[in-house]
């Protein structure tokens, strides 16, 4: 059974969560609650919950500050953010802090249960791994391969006790006094989905043995399989091997990949060589960064950090332009799926060629999401808009490659367009009403035109004209003329103004043109209209 702590400043929301979780009482138990971050930290210290459901915006300490505090103090609790806000920067911050999941309010019992199960499975996997390592220590690392794996995993950590690892390194026959150290990650993308962790470890055990056979005996190495299902290798070498490090390393892995027949499906990411043992952690972080970059762009082969580091720092490009926004909105309004697909293909090709680092890439994707949200808002599909936010933010937390992101963006667009087509949109009527109200107030302006009106209602001019004609069966230009003529008729009958003054009051600078329009509209000139009206009276 997993224990749960709820941290949220809304009392009734906490009670609702407790009620939901009671339905899963055989698997989960709420052991405490807190109404702000400060009290939440005290509860965490006292209760040591397995899972923490936490809001972002709270008094005294916000959710992110609580998460940072807990992570800094190396507590094992897993976090699920529950928030009513779906801001993209929240999702980014959650990713950076290693939050396990992100749920948007309102929350259903089924969504909560699925999320809890996902985090529970992760906890079980980590506990199993910790139990495994504990067991190794209890039997005094009788298996040398496990001993070396444990040493490798410890050396990649930022903080470790060198004194404690010295004896371990000696038993594992790994030198801690070599000239240079570097970390490599070997990752195969196409491993069978049915493989369990032990299958993956067996596969990498084979790779590990090949590395041992092909490496020069003077180059030491240890390895372990990390949580990202990558084989992590730590190399220890002298200055001679450091000088041509990339050459012999590339040759060795070309031999390995030719043997295992994975020439197109593997990623080898190599961190920088460091002259101090403390540099192993930095080299590991670099290798992880390269691996994430290559997975994201689906780029295979051998990659060295020094070759890619410059590409990761480009945060200045704005590639989702106003012209792209205009074209995508137009395509969505027209329900032109082919045009939509072509636009998305083009922008993703552009983004891919720019080789942005994943975080920067996602900022560009956020701009596309904002366009889709603009369209959903314009069409008045509020329920769809809520689902869209939930879908988009949650998916961006778990997506690993560009092709997956592109497919999800297309799914979101087509889903939104279908909803817009099938829903009678009250917002269209609101837009028509807004246009009419603006014309009724500003018909006196002789410069009133379609461009001014489209800017006022913040809508594409062509789409505005299409909607107005669709819902009123009259063009905007004719509607303006209708209002002006009706006002002119009223003034002719009920005011003492002359025809020139009336023309000016209804938006005509040229009295002759006014008279021409009036005669065309009513079939009689303004002067004759007054005469006929007086005669009838």
TrEMBL record:
One of its GO terms (cellular component) is cytoplasm. The modification 4-aspartylphosphate is found at residue 55. GO terms for biological process: phosphorelay signal transduction system. SUPFAM superfamilies: CheY-like (SSF52172), Homeodomain-like (SSF46689). Its main location: cytoplasm. One of its GO terms (molecular function) is sequence-specific DNA binding. This is Stage 0 sporulation protein A homolog. It comes from Anaerobium acetethylicum.
